[in-house]
Amino acid sequence: MFETPEVIKRGVGGSTDIVRKEMFMVHNTWKAAEESHEFILRPEGTAAIARSYLQHGLKQFPTPLKLWTAGAMFRAERPQQGRYRQFHQVDLEVYGLADAVVDAECIEVQWSILRELGLERIEIKLGSVGSTQDRFEYNHYLQDLFGAHQEKLSEDSRARLILNPMRILDSKSESDQSLIAELKPHMMLERLGPDSRWHFDQVCGYLDAWGVPYTLDPTIVRGLDYYTRTAWEIHHQGVGAKSALGGGGRYDGLVQELGGPPTPAIGWAFGIERILIALHDEGVLIPDVPKMLVYVGALEEKGIAYAASLARAARALGHAEFGYKSKKAGKHLEDALKKGAMFIALVGESELEQNTVTLKNLSNREEQILSREGFLEMLGKSI
Ligand code: HAM
Fold this sequence. Notes:
The chain is α+β, with helices and mostly antiparallel strands. 38% of the residues lie in helices and 24% in strands.
């Protein structure tokens, strides 16, 4: 959960809101050693994974290397619906391949997960932020264009003009947006170099062939500096202003930026809380925790070992609970009902002698004496 500030500053990028405004710093001093260390609560996973890729020699694994992680992330944002200071991401990364088919597959996998969860009102917004060279040229173009009207830009965007002019296009400020409407700048998608254009067209071609719907979004910038070429977000109308359930992109320069060899890579992340809002909005029910299948109890002390072995065997089929202490049938029944079990299985003297068990269905009250095999077969049929 902690990362060194250098990795985040170099990886995520000095021009981003994350680095400029949203880092939670942790200062740790070891008095004895008089050492002082600074950490950051990780705002995202990608830069740290790239650091780990280098630090732990993950390059030795066969290409492509596919990684995933999930956990808490922290950004000091202004909290509102769908935007929190601590949130959770599921993250996927693919290292080692620059082919457009990998980009399309990553997008398709992210899309399919949301579809399988039952979401329908989702939209992929797809764009390209170009190669490093394309970006360099495009940023010059934007600097010339906006530079002549600096006084009309917001304070944030005057800083962006120097740090990362593309982020001006993403600005929420009204004055910036009206200047953009007036100047009508070319979008990155219209100014891609021939290699990036060919790559992007291929990505679109695969998605078309696979029937994955998307909307071209020439304004896509993303809030992280490491992206190159393909970039996308998946939005949902029910989440509010911050409607992206997930986003991702290619980042072929990141490993090199952190001191490693040129390594193409691509990935995406989901925001779990936003997915939950979207599921709620669409009325998709999240299945309840499955009911307890069976509660097993012994009526006599000497039946404990046999009853425990039945409970253990039943656990292969579902959630089984054991009564641990010998008790009267009525007491076991009380416990089984409290725990919401579907069946109660009791072992008394005669069951122990004959290697059987009395199984009662707690919804229709049917009771049968079964062999161990019959007991497991009966439970197996009921799930
Ligand atoms: P991101 O777009 O910054 O990308 O975040 C991914 C998702 O995390 C967002 O779409 C959103 O659902 C969720 N999220 C972000 N900030 C918040 C917040 N403050 N509160 C709630 N949810 C939030 C990344 O983080 C990249 N690392 C994705 C990536 C992986 N790109 C390549 N590989």
